[in-house]
Design goal:
Layout lengths: L1 E14 L2 E6 L2 E7 L6 H13 L3 E2 L5 E3 L1 H4 L2 E6 L21 H17 L3 E4 L7 E15 L1
Parallel strand pairs: 3-6, 6-7
Antiparallel strand pairs: 1-2, 1-3, 1-8, 4-5
């Protein structure tokens, strides 16, 4: 599983003008299931994201997790994280999990993150989504399990 995590002051995801998910302070997690990913990888990534200490403490150091900070997560499927740009100018996406498996692992990841005590809002798998966010910091981190 691959993810790009952004610390945000607010974020929302919409499809055709309808807001599907919206959060205040927290994380936007763009997540991609890769071919061969397992349920354990989805759960491990969720646990890592929940514990990632990228929120400021009282000394203004990044020392608190999203749970510690009382934040939420907006989880958005993002198959383009599987892009292979090693040849030519058109990215290839064959490393992404097939759509059915990708959706299942996306839902598993979002549920596992909620099980970690993080309030979770979601986008819609496979939809053409508009994601609006205010990156706080900016803090943007790439992860892979």
């Amino acid at each position: 599983m691959r993810a790009v995590i952004q610390r945000v002051s607010e974020a929302r995801v919409s499809v055709a003008g309808e807001v599907l998910g919206e959060i205040g302070p927290g994380l936007v997690v763009l997540v991609c299931a890769m071919a061969g990913d397992t349920d354990d990888a989805a759960r491990a990534l969720a646990a890592k994201v929940a514990k990632l200490r990228i929120f400021r403490d009282d000394d203004d150091r990044m020392n608190r997790s999203v749970r510690d900070a009382g934040g939420a997560a907006l989880v958005v499927s993002q198959f383009t994280l599987a892009a292979d740009t090693s040849r030519g100018n058109r990215p290839g996406f064959s490393a992404a999990a097939p759509p059915e498996e990708g959706e299942r692992l996306y839902e598993l990841f979002a549920g596992a993150l909620a099980d970690q005590g993080v309030a979770v809002a979601r986008g819609r798998f496979g939809a053409d989504m508009a994601v609006a966010l205010v990156n706080d910091g900016p803090v943007t981190i790439w992860m892979e399990m």
